[in-house]
Each structure stands twice: as structure tokens, then as C-alpha cells.
From TrEMBL:
InterPro entries: ADH-like_C (IPR013149), ADH-like_N (IPR013154), ER (IPR020843), GroES-like_sf (IPR011032), NAD(P)-bd_dom_sf (IPR036291), Zinc_ADH-like (IPR052711). This is Enoyl reductase (ER) domain-containing protein. It comes from the Eukaryota. SUPFAM superfamilies: GroES-like (SSF50129), NAD(P)-binding Rossmann-fold domains (SSF51735). It comes from Penicillium cosmopolitanum. Coiled coil: none annotated. One of its GO terms (molecular function) is oxidoreductase activity. Residues 14-344 form the Enoyl reductase (ER) domain.
Length: 347
């Protein structure tokens, strides 16, 4: 094996094109670590924010980007038990967060600490999850479980767990929402997808057959529609992707006592017209719960379900592990034309 590998870093973070290629040593795993040959990396909205210094949390200098990797173990530290060469694995978003809330917001891969945009990564075995034999998902699908997957899982099961027969509304057709849709359907929920695009909703209908679709551009008061679709009750679980610009509609759509998972901040809003979220939430007895991805134990549970149920996820496009292709993948994600995930495959 060559001792050098290709690694990508952001020496400056003003544009996606700042991504630079380096040849660096392949790390030697410490006794409690495994060395992973990365096979696929999934790109998140967060990665585009990190690249342009728009991520609202700390980013280390000269960071290796990327939080989501799936690959194969090629070397095992001498104190590691339970892993072997050849195991297919994924790595938890925050290697230090095994359970419970985050200790801080700086330990996420590809932000506060170096990420996974490399051919090889060494990681503590305690942050690594083995994929059960026979799981049908591709490396790209598996990588996609790490950030948006655990975020969706945490939203549905991290507080008041989703139960069969309840309803789930996901905003938009991006990575977090499409993963949550698959999980909600697997749980027997009534599912509602909103999108800016009828074309996207048509594709989502064909791929995943959600119960209902609403175009939030054509129907700006999508909350009233969602309440109607749930027989007047309102929605039990909403994944809030828009943020301040959509929270008023989410609270209007939520059932009395329902859970709104506060995840994204993509919607435009007028600072002069910020809703009185506290009063609105009070009126609905709603749980508004901030989500920071989730701990490794949630990735364990997610992998178990996804493997046993052989759930499949939408990968819109796979790019190659070259600087130009990765920049193109970032641009593709930022354009918002995708449904589900955009990934990089690594030779
Ligand atoms: N807190 C966390 O732990 C966490 C974890 C993951 C992601 N996030 C955040 O969640 C957001 C989504 O991330 P992602 O990786 O899933 O993004 P993504 O794959 O890029 O998906 C973005 C999608 O959001 C939809 N969208 C945009 N504006 C919207 C609006 N006003 N109302 C409803 N939907 C809207 C669009 O869907 P349509 O084109 O179909 O309308 C768009 O395609 C980002 O803000 C990201 O930073 C947070």
C-alpha cells in the first residue's frame, strides 16, 4: 500500500473553489483506532456553509471537510475488539458523542475537527458502526445515514417517539427530509411532503409514495392544508427545515402537543416580521426541540433498522473523488435541484 494518500482541505473558505488537494501520509491507527478506506462521502448543506464561512459554528483552520463517510476497515488497532479487516462501516458525525446531548458544537467532523474528505481515515473504534452483513445499501446510501440520517432519526425518536398511525410532515425534498420520509413510512406513519416544485413532488411520489404532497410555493398557507389532511387534528411530527421563515406555518400545522424538530434555517424571512414563537407554541402545547445531529447510539439504532428492513435511499448523483468533481458536487447541492442526497465515491 502506498504510504501517501489524497486529502482535500479548505486553506481559505470564501468559495467552493477554495478546495485544495494535498498528498499526506496515510494515518497509522492508534491501538484503540481502526483505519478505514473511505468508499463514499455524502455532502450536506452544512458542507456548503463551511466552504463559504456561513456555518454558524466554529470551524478549524485548514479543515478537511465532510462529515459523512462509509468505507471498509483495512487495519485494526491492537486494543480493538469487535472489528475486523473487511468490515463495512460508517463513522459517527461527532466522534466524542456516544450518547445524549452534544458536549459542545465543535467536535463535528468537517467543522470543528477534520472531516472525511480523504482516501483513508483513522478513527476511534467507539465512533464506528459496523454494517450488518447482507445489508443491500450502497456505500453512498450508508454514508448518507451519518448526518441527515441521524438528524431524521433524532427528530422522530429522540424525544416523544413516533408511533404507528401518527403523522409526519417533512419540509422540502432534500437529504434530511427524504431520509425522514423513508423512516416515517417504515414506522407506519401518515406522511406529508412539502416542496417548492411539482416536478420534484411527482418524482418523490413515484419513489416513496408519501400519503400527501403540498407545493408550498403554490400553497403558502400549507399549514391549513396539512390540518385538513389530518382530519383537523394537525400533524404529530414536523421536521422544521426552513427555520424562522417557516416556523409560523409549522406551529399552525402541528397537532396539540406535537413535536417540531428545529433542524434547518433555509427559508428567507423579514426580520421586521418575526413571529411570536413562544406564544404560538404555548397555544399548541408544542414541543419545539433543537436538534444537533445526534449521538453515536442513534447511528447504531438507525443502522440496525435500515439494515433489517433493507430500506433504500435516494442518491441523486455520485461524483468522483477529484477536486473539480467535488466542487461540482457542492455547486450541485447548493443549486437545490436535487432530491435526496449527492455523494462522492472514492476509489
Ligand atoms: N440541526 C441539524 O442537526 C441539522 C442536520 C442536517 C441538516 N441541517 C440543516 O437543515 C437544512 C437542510 O439540510 P439538508 O442537508 O437536508 O439540505 P438539502 O439536501 O440541501 O435540502 C434542502 C431542501 O430544503 C428545501 N427548502 C429550502 N427552503 C425551504 C423552505 N422555505 N421551506 C421548505 N423547504 C425548503 C428545498 O426543497 P424543495 O426544493 O423540494 O422545496 C431544498 O431542496 C439546512 O439548513 C442544514 O444546515 C441541520
Amino acid at each position: 500500500m502506498s504510504q501517501q494518500q489524497t486529502v482535500f482541505r479548505f486553506p481559505t473558505r470564501n468559495a467552493f473553489e477554495d478546495l485544495a488537494t494535498f498528498q499526506e501520509d496515510i494515518p497509522t491507527p492508534a491501538s484503540h483506532e481502526v483505519l478505514i478506506k473511505v468508499r463514499a462521502i455524502s455532502i450536506n448543506s452544512r458542507d456548503t456553509q463551511v466552504a463559504t464561512s456561513n456555518y454558524p459554528f466554529y470551524i478549524k483552520d485548514n479543515v478537511i471537510p465532510g462529515s459523512d463517510a462509509a468505507g471498509d476497515i483495512v487495519e485494526v488497532g491492537d486494543a480493538v475488539r469487535g472489528f475486523a479487516k473487511g468490515d463495512r462501516v460508517v463513522v459517527s458525525f461527532d466522534n466524542t458523542r456516544l450518547y445524549g446531548p452534544a458536549n459542545d458544537v465543535i467536535s463535528g467532523q468537517g467543522g470543528g475537527v477534520d472531516g472525511v474528505m480523504a482516501q483513508y481515515i483513522a478513527r476511534s473504534a467507539s465512533a464506528v458502526v459496523k454494517i450488518p452483513a447482507g445489508s443491500p445499501q450502497s456505500y453512498s446510501e450508508l454514508a448518507s445515514l451519518v448526518c441527515t440520517g441521524v438528524t431524521a432519526w433524532n427528530s422522530l425518536y429522540g424525544n416523544n417517539p413516533l408511533i404507528a398511525g401518527q403523522s409526519v410532515l417533512v419540509q422540502g425534498t432534500g437529504g434530511t427530509s427524504m431520509t425522514a420520509l423513508v423512516l416515517a413510512k417504515a414506522a407506519g406513519a401518515t406522511t406529508i411532503v412539502t416542496s417548492s416544485s411539482d416536478e420534484k413532488l411527482k418524482v418523490v411520489k413515484e419513489l416513496f409514495n408519501p400519503d400527501y404532497c403540498i407545493n408550498y410555493t403554490k400553497t403558502p398557507d400549507w399549514a391549513s392544508e396539512a390540518v385538513k389532511l389530518t382530519g383537523g387534528k394537525g400533524v404529530d411530527h414536523i421536521l422544521e427545515i426552513g427555520g424562522v421563515g417557516t416556523i409560523e406555518q409549522s406551529i399552525a400545522a402541528i397537532a396539540q402537543g406535537g413535536v417540531i424538530s428545529i433542524i434547518g434555517y433555509l427559508a428567507k424571512y423579514d426580520p421586521a416580521r418575526v413571529p411570536n414563537v413562544l406564544l404560538l407554541a404555548l397555544g399548541k402545547e408544542a414541543v419545539l426541540r433543537g436538534i444537533q445531529i445526534g449521538p453515536k447510539c442513534m447511528l447504531d439504532d438507525l443502522v440496525t433498522l435500515v439494515s433489517r428492513q433493507k430500506l433504500r435511499f435516494q442518491i441523486e448523483k455520485e461524483y468522483a473523488f477529484t477536486r473539480d468533481d467535488i466542487v461540482a458536487a457542492y455547486n450541485d447541492l447548493a443549486s437545490g435541484k436535487h432530491i435526496g442526497k449527492i455523494c462522492i465515491t472514492v476509489e
